[in-house]
Amino acid sequence: MTNVSVAPAAPILPDVLSLPRKAQPVDGRVNLVGLTRTELAEALRAAGTPDKQVRMRVGQIWQWVYHWGVRDFAAMTNLGKDYRDLLARTFVIALPEIVQKQVSADGTRKYLLRIAGGHEVETVYIPEENRGTLCISSQVGCTLTCSFCHTGTQKLVRNLTAGEIVGQVMLARDDLKDWPQPGVPKDETRLVSNVVLMGMGEPLYNFDAVRDAMGIVMDGEGIALGRRRITLSTSGVVPEIARCATEIGCQLAISFHATTDAVRDRLVPINKRWNIETLLNTLRDYPRLSNSERITFEYVMLKGVNDTDEDARRLVKLIRGIPAKINLIPFNEWPGSPYERSDWDRIEGFADIIYKAGYASPIRTPRGEDIMAACGQLKSASERERRVRKVPVGEGAAGEGPTGEGPAAG
Ligand code: SAH
Ligand code: SF4
Fold this sequence. Notes:
Blueprint: H1 14-17, E1 25-26, E2 29-31, H2 37-46, H3 51-67, H4 81-90, E3 91-92, E4 97-103, E5 109-115, E6 119-127, E7 132-135, E8 139-140, E9 158-159, H5 162-176, E10 194-197, H6 207-218, E11 230-234, H7 238-248, E12 251-255, H8 261-267, H9 276-283, H10 286-290, E13 295-301, H11 309-318, E14 324-330, H12 344-356, H13 380-389
Parallel strand pairs: 2-3, 7-10, 10-11, 11-12, 12-13, 13-14
Antiparallel strand pairs: 1-2, 4-5, 5-6, 6-7, 8-9
The protein binds S-adenosyl-L-homocysteine (SAH) and iron/sulfur cluster.
């Protein structure tokens, strides 16, 4: 953890420490990052904030932490000195540590982060002409084993906490100097203008933490990214999709990738549990439940596997009736990957059929390939780093984390 200002250790407050599992103590103090407003209120009350003041204090602290990006209680000038001291003795505002930052020739930035337990995850910032997208991780590794995905070759180590998820957004805003400045007129051009849950892990297998973290990111008095600026990508965890609509309400992207169960079983093994038909039936309700416009279907283009004209035609037929856009992703290779990227004219031919059927069919330009930051390439850098730094790969591996949550797909 970084940015922890040193303060005398607080007397351990049993009430505070019995708080949400996610409020991991740092030096005996509780980390406020990642607590919902309700949890923050509980924590402040347990630390001795008079009942009558709790609501106001939550609002003040929330604004310092999530609107201004302040990490030091001493800087919270609208709080009394004694109260600030109490806060500093009891709490910290701590984020994961940036171990390494790489900047690609195309401006993409990849951050290797170390989280509690010494585990590592990656976060990628992708600047574009009129927006900047932050791709964040929700788990260390993944329980699923999609055969084209590099992350899928790394076992689930553990779920990230809500603080570690929202912390990725805060760290990127630190690095990009993207927090508002007091006294400086509000600048509408935010560098981190969109967040996608498309990094390491399956976000719907870490539902509660993802929901709480996105609630914080969307809160209008803090980071305040609208729910249309957040996209959660899932391989198709059917029972959690309706909850995603009603409890998070963000945009949804589905890792679809195939048009027959036989091929999807092979590419996205969770399909054996919830097949194409079951998935599509669930998706039909999503726009209404979440009040969102359309669902993004992600489709990785694998040479000779799922890229024929017939696939394209089957795809548009399958999703008929669902407001959708289809995002074609040229396969990003990784060392030892069992597939090849479809040829460019094949990708264009495929896109053309979809476009003529009335769907937007953007081809996702691979970004940050030179630093292995493109879709599906995450994990590699940290693994390579581990080898160099001789950090044991098995450290804290499966068994420690909540591996039982997801199906052992396949
Ligand atoms: N687990 C979630 C989110 C992370 S993956 C999911 O599967 O949706 C984010 C996107 O990258 C998914 O659509 C995934 O299928 C895609 N992807 C994974 N590996 C890839 C690769 N090697 N090349 C291109 N896209 C890949
Ligand atoms: Fe996990 Fe998504 Fe990769 Fe599949 S594509 S292994 S669900 S991270």
